[in-house]
Design a protein that fits this description.
- By secondary structure, the protein is mainly alpha-helical.
- The chain is built from two helices and no strands.
- The protein has one domain (3-77).
- It has helices at residues 3-63, 69-77.
- The protein is rod-shaped and about 95 Å long.
């Protein structure tokens, strides 16, 4: 092989290696993004449950006349 052919083949090898590394990095990123997305979804569900429980508690307190309905309305407005 001539010198230029050898240089081209070496460059091809480097580019192929860079492509493999990029592919691995992208796969790793996608995997970690998916895990983070799942974590965020779980946290959102837990927060939604907490908000529902709080609304129920506030409604019960209003029904039992333990708190002012205006205060309950103000509290509930934070969760719209």
């Amino acid at each position: 092989m001539e010198q230029s052919e050898t240089q081209i083949m070496e460059e091809v090898g480097r580019v192929v290696e860079q492509a493999k590394e990029l592919q691995e990095a992208a796969a790793s990123f996608i995997s970690s993004s998916s895990k983070e997305e799942q974590n965020l979804r779980q946290r959102a569900v837990a927060l939604d449950i907490s908000i529902s429980k709080l609304r129920c508690s506030v409604n019960s307190l209003v029904f039992d006349r333990c708190i002012d309905p205006k205060l309950a309305e103000k509290v509930s407005s934070h969760f719209l």
